[in-house]
Amino acid sequence: MNVQSLLKGHNFLFFGLLALFIPFLPVFLKGQGLTTSEVGLIIGAGGFVTIIAQPLWGMISDKTKTLRKVMLLLIFMTAVCGFLLFNMNSFWGLVVAAMLVYFFLMPLDPLTESLNYTMTEAAGTSYGSVRTYGALGYAVLSLVVGYVMKWFGMSSISILFVLLGLICLVIMWKLPDSPTSSKPVTIDGLKKVLTNKEMVLFLILIFISSIPARMNDTFLGIHINTLGGDSSLVGIAFFISAATEIIVFALSIWWLRKGKELLIITFAIFCYALRFFLSGLVESPISLTLIQLLQMLTFPLYYTAAIQYLYQIVPREWRATGQTVLALLFFGISGIISASVGGFIYNAYGGHIFYYTIATVSFIAGVFGLGLLLRNKKSISE
Fold it and tell me: Which residues of the chain are modeled with pLDDT < 50?
């Protein structure tokens, strides 16, 4: 198999693993008899682990100048810890096992995106042509896992998790390492990257806008159950959500233009606000499921444009770390806030107020994005 085919296979399987973990972990934990607050506690603890793990493994990758070897270790440990997690039934066992999966699985996301961008750039192909297979893997596995949980019980997904992990490990073993910069990585270089004003404002935008997005990821499955839907409908909802991304990623070579990234990100954030507002209005789990069609106007636009914008303002030797910081905000820090604050809002006020709240936060983030667009336009005119 050629490198592009292997890379596409890795994306399909890795994002399939994420589909088993991110949307279905809250459903699995609820099925183990935990309260919404306890689910929030475990996911929040995972967010704390992510804050440590993502920059740690990103810097290890940059320092050792290898993505492949680091990712091989992380995939193997993810498979082992995932098997333990989905066969655990004690509360503290679930906490520890979930934290271990977060520690090894979540750093793979920014490293995979860095691998995608670097290898497609070197090959002269589009990032979206590879990332499309990640969306496809997320869509297919979301659907499959929903029915597996319904037919064979929640713990049965542990076998599927390990199987995907092992195949992903074989593919990563066959992949060559990605091209790296010969420029050495230094602490002074990192300080320069993280104190760049353009970078700081961009990261603030990502931070504010990622909180409601992660709240939805965490509590969508629970809200579908609350409205009367079962685990198979949760799977269908995430399948629809991921399936709509496929065409958007595939056509990114046509719609993603340099210099238009902030505009695209801001548009996607306002679409998030609309999506969450509509989610708060509906009373039917089927209606809520159909609203996930709006995913095509949110995450794939938002994240693809964010990566391209980031790679324009971050030096090549710090790309893995820069990608890690982006993922850290989206999956780590925002994950803690979404789990803890989101769990409180959902418990205290219910799902409808929960969705109206995150719609408001998304709208505020969109206004901030408009401010950055006006600032950039003014600086260019001067």
Answer: 181-185
